[in-house]
Amino acid sequence: MFKALSYLMLVVDRNNLQRAADDAQLTFALLLDKRVPLHTKAVPGLAVAYILSPIDLIPGFIPVLGQLDDLAVLILGVQAFKQLAPPEILAEHQRRLGITTAELSLAS
Q1: Most buried of 20, 45, 102, 107, CB within 10 angstroms?
Q2: DSSP letter, residue 99
Q3: What is the rounded CA–CA span in Å between residue 79 and residue 5?
């Protein structure tokens, strides 16, 4: 019980929330950039489609685990999207948004 609370505090940590916000800004900037290939832009779309789909690896009615698989898919989808995006375009958006590589990503 207390171990679960410590994990929750880690997720709610202000730094992690800022990293998540930075990831969201960067993801939207890359999605709107016409230089990023369409097949690369499909990755976060597929992650969102999985989350909205009634088909789940772990059913949603199982407390906590049912929602964690959706969160994991979303995080992995964003990470894969950033890795597949052209590096020079990714770096350009990071500079424009004032995001350093060390500040990015819950999963890294």
Answers
A1: 20
A2: -
A3: 26
Helix pair 65-84, 14-32: axis angle to 10 deg: 50
Q: Please indicate, yes or no, if residue 4 is contained in any of the structural domains.
A: no
- By CB atoms closer than 10 A (0-12, 13-18, 19+), residue 47 is buried
Q: Give the model confidence (pLDDT) of 86-107 as tens digits.
A: 999 999 999 999 988 654 544 4
pLDDT in tens, the chain (108 residues): 445 555 555 556 777 778 889 999 999 999 999 999 999 999 999 999 998 988 878 887 788 887 888 888 999 999 999 999 999 999 999 999 998 865 454 444
pTM recorded for the entire structure: 0.75
Residue 2 in any domain: the answer is no
95 is in which domain, residue-wise?
Answer: 28-103
Count of domains observed in the chain: 1
* H/E stretch holding 82: helix 65-84
39 within domain boundaries: yes
